[in-house]
Amino acid sequence: MNANLASQGGLSMRNALGCAALACGLLALGGRPATAGGGYSPLTIAMHAENGSKLAGNATLTQDGGDSPQLTVTILYKDMAFIPETMYPAHIHAGTCANLDPKPAYALTSMNAGTSVTVLKTTTLVKLMEKPYAINVHDPRYPSRYISCGDIVAAQPAFTPRSGP
Questions:
Q1: Most confident of 10-14, 65-69, 147-151
Q2: How far apart are CA 56 and CA 49, in angstroms?
Q3: Model pTM greater than 0.85?
Q4: Residue 119 is inside which H or E element, if any?
Q5: CATH hierarchy code of domain 43-152
Q6: 7, 16, 20, 44, 115 from 118: Cα distances, Å
């Protein structure tokens, strides 16, 4: 930073360093800002149907920033008919939906009636953002068959067309 900027009525060195520290902190969190409660903004990803299923919904990952950090993963499918009392295995796998490691990295609570809620104490949202991971829901009759998948990726800013020249 140019030292003359402070003397010309610009940012002070202390303010500039504070802004730089804040920017580095946000980058370390995958760009997900902290909330007033000490946690991080939830990340919602789309769960897409695969292999002829119609299972499309959302998964929300919510990081608690308390003394014992934990990550809550909630999978929800609305307006879908499910076979009563049928458990659909769900996991987080390394890789992407297009190129998945078949060995689960983290087990999630099996989905029942369109919902699964799991609290993970062995990973964080920041760790899951460091390399590609995906959430998969498996066919209850054929566990090696994936019926829904969502890539865990940071939300991308909306595209805004530029106006003017």
A1: 147-151
A2: 5
A3: no
A4: strand 115-120
A5: 2.60.40.200
A6: 54, 41, 35, 15, 10
